Amino acid sequence: MTPELAAALADDADRVERALDVLLPAGDGPESRLFQAMRYASLGGGKRLRPFLALEGARLFAVAEACALRVATALEMVHCYSLVHDDLPAMDDDALRRGKPTVHREFDEATAILAGDALLTRAFEVIADPMTHGDAGVRAELALQLARAAGAEGMVGGQMIDLETEGSEDLDIGAITRLQRLKTGALILFACESGAVMGKAGPGPREALRGFAQDLGLAFQMTDDLLDVEGTAAETGKAVGKDAARGKATFVSLLGAERARTQARLLAAQAAEHLAAFGPAAARLREVARWVVERRS
Ligand code: GRG
Q: In angstroms, what CA-CA distances link 77 with 20, 48, 62, 174, 200?
């Protein structure tokens, strides 16, 4: 990663951290345990890739930073909720996430379910708030797109396919690609396109960002599959070797590590090409595509 990209990622991560701190107050009374769990799930960890994509996308259209930050932070809340629920005993039953005990291990299962629910709903509360954007039509479109990305025809649908097909021998590359487009790709697509929604961009730039996101999402997932095979828990902050242990078909199990790596790099390069028309303004997005496939966490 170039020092410029590292600084930009760190800077935006810091902004998101501070926004999460404000938007997820500690709370008091008997429900304070819920607020603590929401904060535990969201603060102090993660690469903050999705918010970075949203903030950088918004910069292409000169969207007000405060508006973009609220959308980026809401998106991160949805992502954090998905991690909390994915780690539950009924799903992946994981003990480690972002280098610390998962929410149900640190608190308890019921609290983890509620914290996930409350993060998801808080995200939509943030998007719908007039402070996020002065134009109610833009707020409605953001809510619609985020709901589609996160719901049954997006991330949650992808998770269902994942659970249903676990251990199945029949999954081919087309089926895995579809699963991952929903499970991880849909939220990455929202991240990349949300700036164009906030900036009321025309169909050309929106299509370019969608193309970028689709290739980036797959490259991201291929790298995630590679890290599950080749990474360590110390690097990734989560358990590794899980896919093979569960007999999951992944890009790596189907293509082999070397082809998956080559394919991920090709997709990252292709992702960057979609942004040609933005010129130097999209340099950081192009750079982040390169980093996504070389990352170790
Ligand atoms: C349970 C509703 C529900 C959805 C689960 C996205 C998802 C669907 C589960 C996350 C589990 C997982 C390992 C998915 C594969 C790729 C992925 C999304 C990894 C985690 O994202 P990163 O690497 O995590 O951006 P950080 O911690 O850096 O934010």
A: 8, 11, 24, 30, 24
Q: Indicate the top mutation candidate among 20, 86, 92, 221 to test ligand 1's pocket, ranked by most ligand atoms within 8 A of CB.
A: 86
Mutation pick for ligand 1 pocket among 83, 121, 181 (CB with most ligand atoms within 8 Å): 83
- pLDDT of 216 reads 97
Q: Which atom of ligand 1 is nearest to the CA of 50?
A: 25
pTM for the model: 0.95
Taking each helix axis as running N to C, give the angle between helix 32-42 and helix 3-23, from 0 to 180 degrees, rounded to the nearest 10.
170
Which residue stretches of the chain have pLDDT < 70? none
- What pLDDT is stored for residue 27 in this prediction? 84
Per-residue confidence (pLDDT) for residue 170, from 0 to 100: 78
Element (H, E) at 174: helix 173-180
DSSP bridge partners of 101: 96
pLDDT of amino acid 251: 93
At 17, list the tokens. 């951290």
Predicted pLDDT of residue 169? 74
Q: How far is the CA of 275 from the centre of ligand 1 (A)?
A: 25
The predicted-structure confidence for 180-191, as pLDDT tens digits, reads as follows 999 999 999 999
Distance CA 251, CA 221 (A): 8
SS3 (DSSP) at 97: strand
Domain architecture of the chain: domains with CATH = 3-292 (1.10.600.10)
CA 229/CA 65 separation, integer angstroms: 38
The rounded distance, in Å, linking the Cα atoms of 97 and 202 is 39
Around ligand 1, the residues with Cβ closer than 6 Å are 46-47, 49, 79, 82-83, 85-86, 91, 98, 155-156, 159, 183-184, 224
